[in-house]
Amino acid sequence: MVACFFGVVLGSPTLKLRGDYLAIVTLGFGEIVRIFMNNLNAPVNITNGAQGITLIDPVAIGSFKFSNTTQFLGISISGPQKYYYLLLVLALLVIVINLRLQNSRIGRAWQAIREDEIAAKAVGINTRNLKLLAFAMGASFGGVAGGVFSAMQGFVSPESFSLIESIMILAMVVLGGMGHIPGVILGAILLTILPEALRYGVGPIQVAVFGKMLVDPESLRMLIFGLALVLVMRFKPAGLWPSPERKRELQDAGGAMAELLLQANNVAKHFGGVKALRDVSLSIRQGEIYGLIGPNGAGKTTFFNCLTGLYIPDGGGFVFDGKALLADAPHQAAERGIARTFQNIRLFGNMTALENVMVGRHVRTKAGGFGAMLQSAATRAEEAAIRQRALDLLHYVRIEDRADDLAKNLSYGDQRRLEIARALATEPKLLCLDEPAAGMNHTETEELRDLIDGIRRDGTTILLIEHDVKLVMGLCDRVAVLDYGALVIEDVPAVVQKDQRVIEAYLGA
Ligand SMILES: Nc1ncnc2c1ncn2[C@@H]1O[C@H](COP(=O)(O)OP(=O)(O)OP(=O)(O)O)[C@@H](O)[C@H]1O
Ligand SMILES: [Mg+2]
Description:
- 51% of the residues lie in helices and 15% in strands.
- It is an alpha/beta fold and 509 residues long.
- Among the domains are: 180-242, no CATH class; 260-337 and 428-507, P-loop containing nucleotide triphosphate hydrolases (Rossmann fold, 3-Layer(aba) Sandwich).
């Protein structure tokens, strides 16, 4: 519990950091804590400084002590042997827990955050809480390990945990293959065996070949170790045994709704001197397809970003489904029922199509870390339901045969469809599509029109940004035109098409 608390304390300042920076900062924390602990012997002696804390009780279960030799069925088992089996059991336990976590709602959300944090927020993942959860759980494992370690040694000192230990652990993960548990185990085994092999192999070999010790095995160890890491980074950047691309499995969906769903009131957004949105007010009715058009740079995407919480408007606000929408909370917008796609597709590239859609279910499901570790009946039932719903959605957008392909390997049109399926997985009341037909050919655009029309018939209101005027005018119930950040007109397509200002600003003379 204490380790978990400090995990959260140390994790909170690093929430904005990603990837390598995060690793470096956490290594830095390790050093700070070590030096701090080393000096915590004055004015009040807590850690006994560099001498360390001694005479710690050994691990014991009831009266069964792990430290001394016991006779068991006539076999004598020594203390170290007992610890060996205890540690083996604990290591297996950690592996099982991690495997279970990885294939759970929480594990998928972590993976989604690593792939694309903004897209993860847009599907309703509270990235701050989930990152803190990762820190808390990581620290808890460390805390238990530390407890067992100190009891086994009967002694702890800050000097047992220097920078090199932290780097070794990071190196095991990178060398083996980040995000792939068997790979990490392989990394740990290799890096544990390597120093021993060098110590008992290289020293004697040198003596045999040169007659004396030329290079001390310890420095040679660091040299070979460094070289091995550089080679792995260069030739196998994903690690020795990275996550494999996965296999395939297979499988319909529906639901049905003319009141006001969304009201934008004087929404303004400035970027320096650029007024991207100038007091835009518009309203979207329940069950309609609402088109938002305008020339490049008119502020359409900026409107989406303000609506979904990625930008905080400089003025005005939104009322969604009868209640004000909080600014700057993308995952809450998703929770309230606003889903979106991105102009420049943001899928979780290294996750399968199916997994991308399963992440979309995050916000409507609830399995937590403990559920995943224990694999309770409820968790398993929920996981099965998530998978089934995701398969149904892939079928709905007609890419069910690509379920087990990595999102990055899908064709452009399929990626756009997958992004729509992921957005639908959050069960939105309002689906916002940012130029879904961009880059599509005529047939694909026709299919997209049917898809969007079908989604509306199934009860979801749609806000559509699109440059394809024919598509917009044919599909939308009402259309709004933005120009230089200002709303020009909001009306039915027939009226908008004939409006003189629209023709000048957008449709061209
Ligand atoms: N993050 C940002 N920082 C600075 N300026 C921005 C930012 N986002 C948008 N802008 C500016 O705001 C204006 C509106 O951009 P926006 O992306 O909303 O246009 P758009 O209507 O979506 O255009 P397009 O049809 O090209 O997608 C542009 O002048 C753009 O350069
Ligand atoms: Mg745009």
